[in-house]
Structure formats: C-alpha cells, structure tokens
Amino acid sequence: MSTLERLQALLERDFQLAPPALVAEATLESLDIDSLRMIEILFSIEDEFKIAIPAEQAQIRERVKTLGDLAGYIDELISGPEREPA
After folding, report:
1. Measured torsion, CA atoms of residues 23, 24, 27, 30, in degrees rounded to the nearest 10
2. Total-model pTM
3. Looking at the domain assignment, is residue 84 inside a domain?
4. Closest by Cα among 49, 56, 52 to 35
5. Is the pLDDT of residue 61 over 90?
6. Number of domains the chain is built from
C-alpha cells in the first residue's frame, strides 16, 4: 500500500473525509483542513507511520498544499537519514 493510500485511509477512518475527495491533487483547503485539524492530522500521521514530524506547522503549511504533497513529505520523513531501517 502506498503512502498516499495509507494517508487516504487514515483521513477517511479518523477524520470522516469522503473517499472521492481524497485525490492527490486535492488541496488541504478544499478538504476543509484548517490549522487545528492539521495538528490533529499530524499527530495521527506520526502514530500511523511511526515518524516524528520535526517542522513547525507554518513551515509545513508553506510546503504542503495538496494531499499528494503531504504524502511526499511523509515519504521524505520515512526515508530520511535520521530514520534507521526497520
């Protein structure tokens, strides 16, 4: 299962977002993900993917505009140099 697919499942399961809306091109804004909800999602992502998200939320918001961007960011954290292979 790809990172995007895992992210889509998490958002559908934990945040009741509609599956048809969860496409890579969907903007966080179009999914009604505001700053408070983003914090909740980031905590869930850390738990689901067993990673730590080091950046400030403002930095993430600048960099991550779409669901695909968020999946790419997660992939970078998973494969980052600070992460030991499983």
Report:
1. 0
2. 0.86
3. no
4. 56
5. no
6. 1
DSSP string, 33-46: --HHHHHHHHHHHH
pLDDT at residue 55, as a whole number: 72
Say if 9 falls within a structural domain: yes
End-to-end CA distance of the chain: 17
Domain encompassing residue 26:
3-79
Residue with tokens 């408070």: 36
**Which candidate, 35, 83, 81, 37, places its Cα nearest to that of 59?**
35
Q: Could you give the CA distance from residue 14 to residue 83 in angstroms, rounded to a whole number?
A: 26
64: CATH? 1.10.1200.10
